[in-house]
Each structure stands twice: as structure tokens, then as C-alpha cells.
Amino acid sequence: MENRDEYYMRLAIQEAVKAQRLREVPIGAVIVLDEKVIAAAHNLRETTQRAAAHAELLAIEKACEVTGSWRLENAELYVTLEPCPMCSGAVLQSRIKRVVYGAKDPKAGCAGSLMNLLEDGRFNHRSEVVSGVLETECGELLRSFFRSLREKKKKEKLAAEEDGKSSTN
Asked: Is 24 a catalytic residue?
């Protein structure tokens, strides 16, 4: 039987799939309070051309609207990819109690990979971190997205080279 962390992570994965359909990096997030999803979001950085349009930040904004407060002290964030420094900072600032993520991010992860901002005792707030929930599924979404992107760029490069050859003949 699926546990509650897996249940909510599957909802975050559904959000990530929405991002993928928009040709966004497939990252999804949900925020849970009192066993209810109060916010859900997916990456929209390419769509909006806003550097801060990460799934976590968009979900935090929605959760604050729903609760009428910037304090999300009893809320839990479920996200398909380990939060980056910016998102980890927003988690701390919004006082989210617990962060559950799927895939590790060795290049920008700040919930255990590069560093762990969320459990750093120097801050006035700490969030409990649970990693690796449905890690395989979350990681495969990202791997297949980037594989597809690389193949597309390779085809475009080959097509451009062919066009260059035919214009010189």
C-alpha cells in the first residue's frame, strides 16, 4: 500500500507532467496542510520568462493566498526535484515545516546535495527534509525530458549543416 508521502508525491509528479507538456523542465510541487492540498504548481520559467517561476515558489505563493498568511508553519511541501538555493530560501522564509522531494539535484540542490540550507541550525527556522520519495519516477521524468531536448538540438544542428552545404553548392 502506498504511504502518504508517495501519494502526495504522485500529485507533484502530475504537476511535473503539466510542465513537460508546456516544454518546461518537468518539476512539480504541492503544498499540504491538515491533510489537504492547498496549492499545486509546476515550473513556468520558460513560459513566463521569469527566473523565479519555479514550481516551489509558485506553490508557496498560492498557499499564502489560500491561508491569508505568509507563515506556512504546519505545511508540507512535496516537490519532484530537490529545491535550489532560491526555493530553499523561500521555504525557510515561509516557515514550511517539512519538505519531501524525489530526485536529488547534484548541480543546485540545497536540501542535502550541495548543502542543506533547510536543516542548517544557523537559521531561525528549520524544515524537516525527506529525500528520495519516488526518486526513480521523478528522476526519469527529468532524464527523458533532457534526452529529448538534446536529440532535438542535435537534429536542428544537422539540419542547419545540411542547409549550409546545399547553399554553397
From this structure: no
